[in-house]
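Memo to structure team: turn this sequence into structure tokens by end of day. - J.P.
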Amino acid sequence: MSTAALEVRELVAGYTPEVDILKGIALEVAEGEIVTVLGPNGAGKSTLIKAIAGLVAVRSGAVRLFGDEIAGVEPHRMVRRGLAYVPQTRNVFARLSVEENLEMGAIARRDSAAVAHDLERVYALFPRLAERREQSAGTLSGGERQMVAVGRALMAGPRVLMLDEPSAALSPHLTNLVFAKVREVRTSGVTILMVEQNATAALAISDRGYVLADGRERISGEARELLANPEVGALYLGVRRGLAA
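Reply from structure team:
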């Protein structure tokens, strides 16, 4: 059986002491898996990975990375533990070049030869970035900026990578490209936990998934089972009707 890379147990967390956004969520990601967290707006998806990353206060419960408790660890120390997080927005340094952005991901590393090697690996994964290495990140397309953000996270050498809405505001073509790259990242040995609104595309590349609603786990299972689950479809259909009303 695969080793548990990331475990969340009975997690309660929120932005203010008066309101719990997460209400006892449990989640597990095995080493080498891609796991996607789905749910309507306000379900607690982004709050979940921010709490894991140390950006939202955990009030109770456990968060373990390869068996080590990390709840309460400061966000900047998570990278040294092997956990990298790519936020949905403001995920590049707009005034810096592509290469400078990528180098920022390795700022805590001291082995310059290893950093140079990993930089070339990122360029091999994202050839567009190699072509634009001297270009300011703020002038890139949305898909290219997403590649920079993922590449910078990979430069830290993570064992687990968390992505918050990697397809947000992207065209269908760029969405497919980004998800294809996510699969390539997994084949390099990185475990991935991803939050997504595009349920169909995300589950198509995932091993398993969790559906949240109102800060709680609503449904979980194998990705192919969730794709065929009418309750998952009904949940998203309900969200669309609510938005259209």
